[in-house]
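seq/struct pair 1
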Amino acid sequence: MYLLTDRELADRGVAWLPRTLMEAVEAVDADPLAARVLGPAMHRSFVTEKTGEWNSYHAWVSEWERDRYLRFF
């Protein structure tokens, strides 16, 4: 599978899994099956909560960022 091109994978119906939390949240948000299984209130609540989690994660400055960028100033 790893030796195939993106086009060859697409021709075989193989798609990439979400690579980030936000991509996964967007996939759940767009998935009618997830909405039916969870129900409208839980589906919306899940998407809202996980979007907030993603935003909170991106507002946090990691140790790697501090080590990398503070040396420039």
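seq/struct pair 2
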Amino acid sequence: MTRAEARGLSIPDPEVEAQVRARLDDVEASLEKAVRADYEILGEAAFHLLSAGGKRLRPMLVLLSGYFGDRTDPRLVPGAVAIELTHVATLYHDDVMDEADSRHGVPSVNAQWGNSVAILSGDYLFARASEISADLGAEVTRLLARTIATVCDGQIREVTVTGNLEQSEKNYMETIRRKTAALIATSCRLGGMLSEASAELVDLLDRFGEALGMGFQVSDDIMDLISTEQELGKEPGVDLRQGVYTLPMLYAMHGADGPELAELLSDGPPAAERFGRALELVRSEEPLKSARRVVTGEVRRAMELASGLPQGPAREALEHIARFIAVRCGASV
């Protein structure tokens, strides 16, 4: 099993790239061991999305944040494994709620084995992440538990406004801060904690991670609209089809095409021709431009926070990742 490479996400410094890549190989091997189960179907289902690959952004952030303390601390790899297991567990549950057919270019677990197996496999991954974190100490266990609770809070916020055309931008931003940014912030904090970086640097890494996570989710929302199915590993426009109205859609609702879009969505998530026209309106220039400005703002906030970290290749790598998040969706830096 190998992680999927994302163009532009490699670390600029060749030496640090080689070091982090080697540690990520250790993470991959540990992930495979972590999800083994006595019951064959559970083992297969738990390993399904992990074996499909992924950018492993969150484990990478754990390892890079470790450079602000002792980067060789052996706890960094299991910490990165616990973070990725937690992330993948949320994807299993997301796919059930969204009735998704695919993820990372392969059939989703719920499509292949059914919702019950998908939910229980996600629970199994949460349990394995918790078990690994327990070996890293009570502080790490508390951090991971608190983060999982925050992610669940964000997910419930999203579910309760599904199909609601009145959702505000403020509510949307708070939802993604909890659903997505919290786990990315924890990835950065955990790397600092496990490498025994100073408390000041750990807090700075946490705030950097939150800004990065906010930009990442809005960038993802844009990519869901403008990318091909091959690029996404799933059908474009899934959020709109499911009634998950993301930031570009909210901006479209308040633009010149708002009345037409509201009519198209008046009976709930659109289907057939109504979906095609709604997607066309949300993809128009002004909503995407406005959403990209938000990405730019969050990425610049992350870059400003990163400037407070010690100068060196690890800081440059974090700044590079922030720029990548903006560039991939067409936002400026």
